[in-house]
Write a structure and sequence with these properties.
21% strand; eight-stranded mixed β-sheet; Beta-carbonic Anhydrase, Chain A; binds zinc ion; single chain
Length: 247
Amino acid sequence: MNNEHLAAVRKWYPDALTSIDTVNRLLDTVEKRLGLKPHQLMHADSMCCDDVNAIQYPPRALEMLGPFHMGGLNGYPFAGITGMNAFAHHVPEDGAVLIFYAPHIGISKEGIIGEISRIGQSANSACCGAAKGALGKLAADQIIEGNITSLDFQMNTIEQIFLHQKERILNAENRIFEATEVMYEAIDDRIEVLVKHTGYPCRYVILVGGIFINGDKEMGSFCQYKKFEVIEMGSGKRESLMGEYYL
Ligand SMILES: [Zn+2]
């Protein structure tokens, strides 16, 4: 990773940091504000099951308990209420649940968005492949309203999300960038609903939402936060930690 790579990413995501810096700042902010160490945090993530996310997962995140994986294709929390309830009951009583959720998108070192160079491959490939697939079907008018099958449930769900924002995505200056924004909003909405329906036997729930950016094989990954909020379970009070995160 060098500054050129971060510059390529920041053309699209001006506040992006490397995922190593992202996790360091996250854990530092949580410790400073809430006095909690990583081993007191039950970490759940909602990220795409793409293997590149496993390869580029920031190692320091593993200092937290977990992760419990909520995500399926492109980070939508397909594990639903059952998933949310499961890890909520694994949390240390004096600790917190920390939920990180993000759709992902590739940016190559040349700054091309929606694709990356993967290990052992000579040509670039789509990233997120599911988002690009759904976008292709949207542009070709091939998505049928309400069509969700058991054979391809997750993909069909993403297709429906895009279909409901068809004009916005197809008229955007960059369609895959915009589709990823749409995906973030859908994930964020769903996470908020799931959190509302779950009881957490701990002090805090920390919500961290953003865009996870995969670089080419030699670049590593990056992240731009969109939300970093802490909810105090006793009072229900909610506070943003974005200011401190970016200090
Ligand atoms: Zn993906």
